[in-house]
Design a protein that fits this description.
Number of helices of chain A: 18
Radius of gyration of chain A: 24 Å
Order of helices and strands of chain B: HHHHEHEHHHHHHHHH
Structural class of chain B: mainly alpha
Number of helices of chain B: 14
CATH architecture of chain B: Orthogonal Bundle
Helix content of chain B: over 70%
CATH topology of chain B: ABC transporter involved in vitamin B12 uptake, BtuC
Largest interface: A-B, 44 and 47 residues
CATH topology of the largest domain in chain A: ABC transporter involved in vitamin B12 uptake, BtuC
Order of helices and strands of chain A: HHHHHHHHHHHHHHHHHH
Strand content of chain A: under 5%
Number of strands of chain B: 2
Shape of chain A: globular
Mean pLDDT of chain B: 88
Strand content of chain B: under 5%
Radius of gyration of chain B: 21 Å
Helix content of chain A: over 70%
Number of domains of chain B: 1
Oligomer: heterodimer
CATH class of chain B: Mainly Alpha
Strand order of the largest sheet of chain B: 1-2
């Protein structure tokens, strides 16, 4: 009976997309569909953290952005002049930073009392100035090279699809750092620490031009699928369009979007399959046991903090993968567009509405909430038009309402989260068994 | 000698005075967070946007007063509007408590569920603020702007460097001192304050001795609303009002509360100043300062800025991380009110 209901829910979701396809256009429907797929992957990552282990991550935005960085660093061709000008310096600065951290940790282990504080402070100060001394000149050297076009180190020139895995690794690294610090303390601290790290990641990406050109953005990323213009000049494609009886130009755009859909769907299915496997394995049962009764699990000899760290890293890696996919789809990396509402909060709404603890629920939530988010804009604008239709042109209130319509989405999403959390905390597709 | 004096004036002008004012604003914000944590036992992510909400109402009332020609020159009109902002925020917080948090208290939900719903509340409030006043910068400061102008200071003392003290900075400090004294008097001396401390210390024991939890919670929200509105308005007067900035203030405020020991009001004040002074001293460019102090051949070429101002949030974060690593309970032992 329940399976039946779930199938109906997904069928309804695809029905909604089909309505957009027939009503607006298939191109729009596919654009929404692709982002639905990416959102679902992100929601799966968050579900691994929250649904499996009860960890509250408020920094999804930062991990997604790290995925975006990976897309740039993997796919862009290296800027050879910049490499020769400053790469050695940057490398040296990173080593110097590593040495400083290692020395501080060593000093803190070996010394005690006041000597410990003094020595570690001295090491940190000295290390900071040495690192900055090496770092700053290299950065200016790199940024001086054709700042309008490059001004950064560039990437490795590999196919962009590789970056999806690298994005996962980047996010996992950041998650390890944050988890190491904040896990094992009060549960609120992880939330605060993730909020902090995501703000800092965005600040770094906006300001470190040598890395990803900062707010100058990196455009024209490599694509994992052919370009529309290439397709339009390929014989087999033209004949395919002929047999289908469609216009070559509009068909090429749909074909490209479909190719993306296939790639994203493969990733989603793979992660979905792994998540379901993990959830049903002894490991998954252990995670849920820890979530539901931490003390009992600890008494059984489980290292709760370690398991939390593990699951936090895994979930963040999935978010990183999704972030890299998103930047690939956009074809550009724009640090300025990352905002917590779109990249952290919306994903949370997806997980909670879909059903925390249930992977299918997260996927459904990803689809549904993204759909609502996109379609709320025209609907909201239309609603405001109706509301204000009685008011005269040039009425102050009318102008204000029309201008403020976009902010309604914020309120609506917040309301949805609060209402679902309160009245239906198990979501659309509840977790099986257990509670 | 004059060089040293000039350096000191420069330092006071760009570090000491702004950081003190900022520290007082953070301290007031952190006090609100810490109070809510002490009584309701969760980190309130909506606090930044509560500040934004209170400030928004204050701004709207200020504009209304300004349009009617009401003013208390040389003080900013916003001070007159502040009580209205506080009232509206009190109403807002009591309503959210009634609609959101009370249910979770009744079912004794896990702390993380409270945190999560506070994130939901944060976005609803953020939406309301943006909907009403828009996402842009708003200036609402009026009245006299300066107590001491750099030019007058130079003329009076004959120094090369000037010292500026803004009215908003002096007001911030004055009001913060009054608010803190009143709060501590309330917590230490009144019956209600004592019952709050008892409730924070040991909930079960407090309940046994007949303290009404709902009343304690209600008073906590009222105080938190007042603190948030005052902190937000002072910050807005000193700098400017922009909803997103208030959201971003959340991080330094949390850092301040945790550094001082979350749940401990004294710690929140100390934490506010620790965070503010670290932020300002680390992002200040010392070039000119050092030029006064060092002999000519040692003058620095670079700005001598430890971190660019874009990374000021990183400072709060690093402080937070250090505290969590070294002393998770904070400077003053946390979790006592």
């Amino acid at each position: 009976m329940r399976i039946h209901r779930n199938v109906l829910l997904f069928a309804g979701m695809f029905g909604l997309l089909a309505i957009v396809g027939f009503g607006q256009s298939w191109s729009v429907a596919l654009t929404i569909f692709n982002l639905c797929l990416i959102s679902s992957v992100m929601a799966l990552g968050v579900n691994i953290q929250w649904g499996y282990a009860g960890l509250f991550n408020v920094g999804i935005m930062g991990f997604a952005a790290l995925g975006g960085v990976a897309a740039v660093l993997v796919s862009k061709p290296p800027v050879t002049e910049a490499w020769s000008a400053g790469a050695a310096g940057i490398g040296l600065a990173i080593i110097s930073l590593g040495v400083t951290i290692a020395a501080t940790i060593y000093a803190r282990r070996k010394l005690t009392g006041r000597r410990r504080s003094l020595v570690s402070f001295a090491i940190i100060v000295a290390g900071f100035f040495i690192t900055r001394g090496i770092f700053d000149p290299s950065v200016s050297a790199i940024e001086a090279i054709e700042p309008a076009k490059t001004g950064y180190l560039g990437g490795l020139g590999l196919p962009v699809i590789v970056s999806w895995a690298v994005g996962g690794l980047f996010a996992a690294g950041a998650a390890w750092l944050v988890g190491k610090i904040a896990l094992g303390l009060r549960s609120d601290y992880l939330a605060i620490a993730t909020l902090g790290i995501s703000e800092i990641i965005i600040a770094v990406l906006k300001n470190e031009d040598w890395l990803t050109r900062g707010v100058k953005n990196v455009a024209g990323l490599d694509r994992p699928v052919p370009r529309e213009i290439e397709l339009q000049n390929t014989d087999w494609f033209i004949s395919l369009a002929d047999t289908l009886g469609t216009n070559v130009i509009s068909f090429s755009s749909i074909f490209v979007k479909l190719s993306y859909s296939v790639l994203f769907a493969v990733v989603l299915l793979a992660i979905m399959w792994l998540s379901e496997k993990a959830l049903k394995s002894p490991w998954g049962r252990m995670m849920r046991a820890i979530r539901d009764n931490r003390d009992a699990a600890e008494a059984m000899g489980k290292d709760v903090t370690r398991r939390h760290l593990q699951v936090f890293i895994l979930g963040s890696a999935v978010v990183g993968i999704a972030g890299a996919m998103l930047t690939t789809l956009d074809g550009q990396f724009t640090p300025g567009t990352y905002n917590p509402l779109r990249y952290t909060f919306l994903i949370w709404v997806m997980v909670i509405v879909g059903g925390s603890g249930n992977n299918w629920g997260s996927v459904l939530g990803g689809f549904l909430i993204w759909f609502v988010w996109i379609e709320a804009e025209p609907v909201g604008a239309w609603l405001m038009d109706v509301v204000t239709s009685g008011m005269s042109e040039g009425n102050g209130l009318r102008d204000h309402l029309l201008k403020s319509a976009p902010h309604m989405r914020l309120m609506v999403m917040g309301m949805i989260l609060l209402l679902v959390l309160r009245f239906s905390p198990r979501g659309l597709i509840p977790e099986k068994g257990g509670r | 000698m004059t060089d040293i004096l000039n350096a000191l004036i420069l330092f006071a002008n760009f570090v000491l005075v702004p950081a003190t004012a900022y520290g007082a604003q953070l301290a007031l914000g952190a006090l609100g967070v810490t109070l809510v944590f002490g009584i309701l036992r969760f980190s309130n992510f909506a606090h930044g946007d509560t500040m934004a909400f209170g400030t928004m109402v204050t701004i709207l009332v200020t504009w209304w007063f300004q349009s009617m020609g009401v003013s208390i020159h040389p003080l900013p009109t916003a001070l007159l509007a502040l009580p209205f902002g506080i009232l509206a925020t009190v109403g807002m917080l009591l309503a959210t408590d009634r609609l959101v948090y009370r249910f979770y208290r009744k079912v004794k939900a896990a702390p993380i569920v409270f945190v999560m719903s506070s994130v939901g509340v944060m976005f609803v409030m953020n939406g309301i603020v943006r909907f009403i006043i828009g996402p842009d910068d708003q200036r609402f400061a009026d009245g006299e702007r300066f107590i001491i102008k750099a030019r007058d200071f130079k003329a009076a003392t004959g120094m090369a460097e000037g010292l500026t003290i803004k009215v908003s900075q002096a007001l911030t400090l004055g009001i913060a001192v009054i608010v803190v004294i009143a709060l501590f008097w309330f917590l230490q001396r009144t019956r209600t304050g004592k019952s709050m401390r008892a409730f924070s210390d040991n909930e079960d024991l407090a309940l046994l001795s007949g303290i009404s939890p709902e009343r304690v919670v209600m008073i906590t929200w009222i105080i938190a609303a007042a603190l948030a509105t005052i902190a937000g308005t002072l910050y807005g007067l000193d700098k400017s009002f922009k909803p997103f900035t208030y959201f971003q203030l959340l991080l330094p405020i949390f850092a301040a509360a945790i550094v001082g020991g979350i749940g401990n009001p004294l710690g929140a004040i100390a934490g506010g100043f620790v965070v503010a002074f670290s932020e300002v001293t680390i992002t200040y460019a010392y070039k000119k300062f050092l030029r006064y102090l060092l002999p000519e051949n040692l003058e620095p070429d670079s700005l001598v800025q430890l971190l660019s101002t874009d990374y000021k949030f990183a400072v709060s974060f690093v402080i937070l991380v250090m505290v969590l690593l070294i002393r998770p309970t904070g400077i003053f032992k946390g979790k006592v009110l």
